[in-house]
Design brief:
mainly beta; 5-stranded antiparallel sheet; 4-stranded antiparallel sheet; 1 helix; 13 strands; elongated
Length: about 160
């Protein structure tokens, strides 16, 4: 594995961290545990340590959105875009989940968009299976749904 893999991006407050080099461990803590409580209260202007992790554009990515074109008398569907990034994905499972059960995803009736090899994606009742997808590949799938509350849609993935 070359380089460090960052699973998420954002702005984080650092409470504690450590670095291990062989048998030596360097440790940082925002609150020094060796100080007595009364001395710690005198330091009113202590600044918090903040760490910003940038988004990794070459990481595995999954996005669920409304399609660009909507046909009024057709079954409604969502566009699922899966980008492999720098990874050769040998096996991945994508499950769509709605915590309130107001939306039902008809994954068995999902369709692969133009330009995506059909042998890479397999649809079953509760998940989408991806096998042997090359790096920098974007897979687009139209997933039909029924229901009314779309503000609670969540997507979770498992990558193997």
């Amino acid at each position: 594995m070359s380089g460090m893999q960052i699973p998420c991006a954002g702005l984080f407050k650092v409470d504690s961290s450590f670095l291990r080099l062989g048998k030596v461990k360097f440790e940082y803590s925002a609150t020094n545990r060796m100080q007595k409580p009364e001395k710690e209260s005198r330091k009113i202007t202590k600044r918090s340590q903040v760490l910003r992790l940038l988004r990794d554009d070459q990481a595995f990515d999954l996005q669920l959105a409304f399609p660009d074109n909507v046909i009024l008398d057709a079954t409604p569907h969502l566009m699922l875009s899966i980008h492999t990034g720098r990874n050769h994905v040998t096996k991945a499972t994508v499950r769509l989940h709605n915590p309130t059960n107001d939306v039902v995803f008809n994954i068995e009736k999902a369709e692969v968009c133009e330009g995506v090899p059909a042998e890479i994606i397999d649809f079953s009742k509760d998940h989408i299976a991806i096998k042997d997808a090359l790096p920098n590949t974007t897979l687009r799938v139209n997933v039909p749904y029924s229901g009314v509350r779309l503000d609670m849609i969540k997507a979770s993935t498992g990558v193997g």
